[in-house]
Design brief:
Elements: H1 7-22, H2 27-45, H3 56-69, H4 75-91, H5 98-114, H6 120-131, H7 142-146, H8 151-155, H9 163-176, H10 188-203, H11 212-232, H12 240-254, H13 326-336, H14 345-349, H15 378-404, H16 407-410, H17 414-417, H18 432-438, H19 442-456, H20 460-463, H21 479-500, H22 504-520, H23 530-538, H24 547-562, H25 568-575, H26 598-601, H27 624-634, H28 658-674, H29 676-679, H30 683-695, H31 699-719, H32 734-746, H33 749-753, H34 759-769, H35 774-779, H36 782-795, H37 801-814, H38 818-821, H39 824-838, H40 843-867, H41 869-874, H42 877-890, H43 895-911, H44 914-918, H45 920-937, H46 943-957, H47 968-983, H48 987-997, H49 1009-1024, H50 1038-1055, H51 1061-1084, H52 1098-1119, H53 1127-1146
Helix pairs in contact: 1-2, 1-3, 2-4, 3-4, 3-5, 4-6, 5-6, 6-9, 9-11, 10-11, 11-15, 12-15, 13-21, 15-19, 18-19, 19-22, 21-22, 21-23, 22-24, 24-28, 27-28, 28-31, 30-31, 30-32, 31-34, 34-37, 36-37, 37-39, 37-40, 39-40, 39-42, 40-43, 42-43, 42-45, 43-45, 43-46, 45-46, 45-47, 46-48, 47-48, ...
């Protein structure tokens, strides 16, 4: 006989055999045996964790067999079998299959109906365990459980006197609401019933006959139920009353059992842009500025309130270490009332109590907080732990609620959850920061900070109204000042929480929350100083013992340097001496940061320093942040400040943990991007840092090295732009840029570009290579230029769409380089590569290829104008035809492709020579491309596509080889532009169409008198409608539109023939007085700029009008008075009015 199988599995099988044997016994002898057997199974399931759990089939078989043996009239056995279901399913994490679930659910529902009320709690616990993650399989039982007279509704009714029974029913209902991936969710009617039940539970108050722990467990079950509905059911909260009621109960539960705090929350909160009742007097406020929101490499942790299956059995496990930090609680409470007192960083790091000099603060603490040291000990501690769990559950539910409400609706409740500065004599309002500062449980504090972070995420637009840069002295507090006050208070409270916190996990959340605040606050509209405080207080945490705290501290510094860069306040912070505010923090500062040059010694350029203040603008030593980031990236680690690195095994234990180095690289890239003048003195050293990173084995370090390289390249490009505000002598010299790129191309960059296992890295390297300065590229050695071009042409054939898109874009950059665009062979190779990408299946590749095609065709026009006939003759006719056909095809693609395809079409049609126009092979392609352009102008495409199409038609009109005056397509083109200039909603499209209509340089190009006059009439109507718009944002373009229309009208008048004058005269007779003010405004407007961005030449406008008068006067003299209306007289009248007005203004 085989040995008995050990462990729970063997025990279950033996029980199964015994249960089978009991079937044959009469009922009387069976009952005692079943009692003993159930007791044994229950005790085993409550014992220590087994090495190997039994299989689900065995557990289900035992439970089904047990239920079959227990009739419903034997209530003690029913109670025990339900306990067995509850214990076994929870202990062994068993999912019951559908067939067994149907039997067991039917049994439990029948037992609830037939058995006495004393058994109901155990039956409901079994029911809860059965339906957990099994909701979709319970559909046919939902009417019995959640229908009008459903059992769960009866037992969870607020009138239910037995709270334990009510709690068990609510828990079953919450478990039913859990979602299962790829399975149908509860019907809307059931969802609504459950939501109302949970809400009524959360709104109920504890009565004196209910013990604290039971009430806490009841609240927890309801909170988990609401969270499941919001998460799993993707429930969108739309109705104001529903949102207000839920937020009110969440606010109440957030503070449940918080020592020393008793708050009254109304049954519903109501949204309001301003506090509903504000008894504060106006106080002096502070400020903050819109920040560039940034996603960092560090991952946000999910709130710890997330439900796990293992928690099903015991909802209120002790939260060891969470609820007893008495001294922390007291210190936090004192701090909350201390105003803007800033403890010194050195005191905090040295472990001193920053509040020891404020004994009066203790008066704010209520005597009830001394309960932590009472002799009841165990029970009191357990109650506090359960209360902390309720608060965590409420915060986790709040997190889900935030994701279920539109942000614009959520911010109506801002004042209910976010602190505002208290008025003189007013108490501090309770908010999420109250929990972050006062709660004794670090886990709860972390949850509150996570919720606050979610609140702040995406708040940039809402916070952008804040302003307190000017002291307001009004009788009321403007909304902008209220929001600014709230931003200032958030800074104050978060910095207080920062210096008081001892838990590393909570510290990490505080710093992440600060980073979110910094990324969204509008500092340019607020008084300076807020960022300085954050900057100075975060410095010591860069060397915290916990890696997560160090990473999030770098994230915060990255947010500061990326927020609306460049900010004057941040520039001042970056210019501070390296030692400022850092070494004062004592032991917190790593020794490796003490030497200014140590990090540079690790880099080969340190001895030469070829960029020794090339522009005379660099600081004598690198800014603290730059030095810190480079040190973290390139210097060996110091074990003394990296004791939690076990979670981050790096490829080499020589360096700091990988997440820290990645964050330092990202901060460095942001610093270079926002404050390039600060970094340019160390341009070559930073290039060496990028090189080193790209040479490492870790692809993520390589990737961020490539991103740093791209930012360095882009910084130089921006400096050398023609319109750059940087003076030429303050720019990085071209010779240094050549040295920089020579180092890159002789280093790891070519290898990185060919690193096919890592397409994201290749993409980033491609982007970096496209950031080379054109002047520097032309000075590179020939073989290095060829290497760059060869690599990009090769990558254009990559199988990976990311790499292919980046290569296509880079080729579009290179084709504009003066030294390459005149090389016909390079132009041809690039054209073929781009055309290949233009037919790719990836929309992103096609969009990038279309942009590059637009650039390539721009170079055709530039070469035509600078090199003349020689370039046109060298370029293959076949390639030109391919460009025309491919661009026409691309103009039918999606809008992102189409916008550049029409630009390319305009350029190619402009480039065509008489020999091409006469060529039958070109004729069909030309007709098709022109029809595509005309159709796009009047289409429903995005506005960018349409204004590019108008611009392209203007380009077509510049080609003298095209038969503009007689071709049928010309009539269609003029008709489309005339229609758009009158009626398009977008003024920029109207501007481009008016511009296109003013391009033909000869009267013959406009065709017949009828067509010419139609264009003239359309422009007159457009001028009258130049202020008609439904969209206020378009109004700012109305002045430019009028300028362009007036320019077009005068252009037409200078070309007009005698046959055109009657119709022109008739239009002026009808509308002359209406358009006269617009023409006068055109003649005197000095505020707007022209296309090139320079102020208009008003004298040229007057001369243009005079030329039109001279031209028309000559024609009218020839007609010898036959013209019924003399157009020249009208224009002379306009000019006289303008001259008189000008003289009057000057006088």
């Amino acid at each position: 006989m085989a040995a008995a199988e050990p462990g729970p599995a063997g025990s279950l099988r033996r029980c199964l055999a015994r249960l089978g044997a009991l079937r044959a016994r009469p009922d009387g002898g069976r009952r005692t045996e079943l009692h003993l057997l159930f007791d044994q199974l229950i005790s085993e399931s409550c014992g220590p964790e087994p090495a190997a759990a039994p299989g689900p089939q065995d557990v289900c078989a035992v439970l089904v067999q047990a239920c079959q043996l227990v009739p419903l009239d034997q209530e003690h056995l029913v109670s025990k079998v339900c306990q067995l279901i509850h214990h076994l399913l929870n202990r062994y994490q068993v999912m019951v299959d559908e067939q067994n679930l149907n039997f067991l659910l039917s049994y439990c529902i029948s037992a609830l109906r037939q058995c006495s009320s004393w058994t109901h709690v155990e039956i409901l616990q079994a029911l809860a365990a059965l339906v957990y993650n099994n909701g979709p399989k319970c559909q046919k039982y939902l009417p019995d459980l959640l229908g009008k007279a459903g059992l769960l509704l009866q037992f969870s009714d607020p009138a239910q006197p037995d709270v334990e029974l009510r709690r068990a029913a609510v828990r079953s209902m919450a478990n039913l609401c859990l979602s299962v991936p790829a399975q149908p969710y509860l019907d809307e009617s059931y969802r609504s019933v459950c939501f109302q039940t949970f809400l009524s539970v959360l709104q109920s108050s504890k009565t004196s006959d209910v013990d604290d722990i039971t009430f806490c467990m009841l609240l927890q079950s309801a909170l988990k139920g609401v969270q499941s509905l919001l998460n799993g059911g993707k429930m969108k909260l739309m109705q104001t009353d529903q949102i207000g009621a839920l937020l009110a109960v969440l606010k109440k539960c957030m503070f449940h059992g918080l020592p020393g705090l008793s708050i009254e929350v109304p049954t519903a909160l109501y949204p309001a842009p301003l506090p509903q009742y504000d008894k504060r007097s106006p106080v002096k406020q502070e400020q903050s500025e819109p920040a560039t929101s940034r996603q960092t490499g560090s991952r946000r942790k999910k709130c710890k309130g997330k439900q796990k299956k293992g928690e099903l059995g015991e909802e209120g496990r002790e939260d060891s270490g969470d609820a007893g930090d008495e001294s922390m609680l007291r210190a936090d409470m004192v701090k909350l009332h201390l105003g803007d007192v800033q403890p010194r960083a050195s005191d905090v790091c040295a472990g001193k109590d920053p509040l020891s000099s404020h004994p009066t603060g203790w008066k704010r603490i209520s005597s009830s907080e001394s309960e932590y040291s009472d002799t009841e000990g165990g029970i009191q501690s357990k109650v506090r732990s359960y209360q902390a769990n309720v608060r965590q559950g409420a915060l986790a539910c709040f997190l889900s609620t935030i994701k279920s409400i539109e942000k614009r609706v959520l911010y109506g409740y801002w004042s209910a959850f976010v602190p505002d500065a208290p008025g003189i004599g007013s108490p501090q309002s309770v908010s999420l920061m109250t929990i972050a500062l006062k709660d004794p449980s670090p886990k709860t504090r972390a949850c509150a900070l996570q919720v606050l972070s979610a609140f702040l995420e995406g708040s940039k637009q809402f916070l952008s109204v804040a302003e307190d840069a000017n002291d307001h002295k009004r009788a009321f507090t403007p909304f902008s000042v209220t929001i600014a006050s709230s931003i200032r208070e958030l800074h104050r409270c978060l910095l207080l929480a920062l210096v008081a916190e001892s838990s590393s996990q909570t510290l990490t959340q505080i710093v992440k929350c600060l980073a979110n605040l910094v990324s969204n606050a509008p500092y340019s509209r607020l008084k300076p100083g807020l960022l300085t405080r954050v900057w100075n207080q975060i410095k010591p945490y860069i060397s915290h013992k916990d890696v997560n705290v160090r990473v999030s501290s770098l994230t915060l510094l990255g947010a500061i340097v990326s927020v609306q860069a460049p900010l004057p306040e941040v520039q001042l912070l970056l210019q501070q001496p390296s030692s400022s505010g850092l070494n004062s923090s004592g032991s917190a500062t790593p020794g490796r940061f003490s030497s200014c040059e140590q990090w540079r010694k690790a880099l080969p350029w340190a001895g030469e320093n070829p960029l020794e203040n090339p522009a005379g603008c660099g600081p004598p030593e690198p800014c603290w942040l730059l030095r810190l980031c480079v040190s973290i990236i390139v210097l060996p680690r110091e074990d003394s400040c990296s004791d939690s690195d076990a979670n981050f095994p790096s490829l080499s234990s020589v360096y700091e943990p990988c997440p820290l180095r990645l964050e330092a690289l990202q901060v460095l890239a942001l610093l270079v991007k926002g404050y390039f003048p600060m970094a340019q003195s160390y341009f070559l050293e930073l290039g060496e840092v990028a090189c080193r990173c790209m040479e490492e084995m870790d692809p993520s370090i390589q990737l961020h090295g490539a991103k740093l390289l791209e930012e360095l390249g882009t910084g130089v490009l921006q400096q050398h732009k023609p319109d750059s505000p940087t003076a030429p002598e303050q720019r990085v010299p071209v010779s240094v840029v050549v040295t920089f790129w020579t180092m890159m191309l002789n280093g790891p960059l070519p290898g990185t570009l060919q690193s096919s296992p890592h397409p994201t890295l290749q993409t980033s390297a491609c982007d970096a290579l496209s950031s080379i300065l054109p002047e520097a590229f032309s000075l590179l050695q020939g073989d290095q230029q060829i290497l760059c071009v060869t690599l990009l042409l090769g990558l254009n054939h990559s199988e990976n769409p990311l790499v292919k898109a980046a290569a296509a874009r880079a080729l579009g950059v290179y084709i504009l380089f003066p030294c390459l665009r005149q090389d016909v062979m390079f132009v041809a190779d690039t054209a073929n590569a781009i055309l290949n990408s233009l037919h790719d299946k990836s929309p992103n590749v096609r969009a990038k290829a279309a942009w590059s095609l637009g650039n390539l065709t721009d170079t055709l026009i530039i070469n035509m104008e600078t090199m003349g006939q020689s370039f046109q003759e060298e370029l293959s006719d076949l390639l030109l035809l391919k460009l025309l056909r491919s661009a026409t095809e691309a103009s039918k693609d999606r809008d992102k492709v189409k916008s550049n395809a029409v630009r390319a079409l305009g350029n190619v049609l402009h480039f065509l020579q008489p020999c091409h126009v006469a060529n039958p092979r070109f004729r069909e392609a030309m007709e098709e491309s022109l029809q595509a352009l005309i159709a796009t102008v009047g289409s429903e495409a995005t506005m960018k596509v349409r204004w590019n199409a108008c611009y392209a038609l203007g380009n077509v009109f510049k080609n003298p080889a095209l038969p503009l005056g007689e071709a049928p397509w010309a009539t269609q083109a003029f008709g489309a532009l005339s229609s758009v200039v009158k009626s398009c909603k977008n003024f920029k499209v109207r501007i481009k169409s008016a511009m296109a209509l003013s391009i033909p340089s000869r009267r013959e190009c406009y065709g017949s008198t009828e067509q010419f006059c139609q264009i003239w009439s359309a422009l007159v109507v457009a001028l009258q409608r130049s202020e008609d718009t439904e969209d206020f944002l378009e109004f700012k373009y109305s002045s430019s539109l009028r300028t362009q229309i007036c320019r077009a009208l005068l252009h037409l008048l200078r070309l007009a023939r005698s046959t055109d004058l009657p119709l022109i005269g008739g239009t002026l007779r009808d509308h002359g007085e209406a358009i006269k003010p617009f023409v006068l405004q055109y003649l005197r407007s000095s505020g707007e700029e022209n296309e090139a961005g320079t102020p208009p030449d008003l004298g040229e406008r007057e001369r243009g009008l005079q030329r039109a008068i001279d031209h028309l006067s000559g024609i009218e003299r020839e007609l010898q008075g036959k013209a019924r209306v003399r157009v020249s007289l009208y224009l002379e009248d306009v000019l006289t009015d303008h001259t008189n007005a000008t003289e009057l203004a000057e006088a």
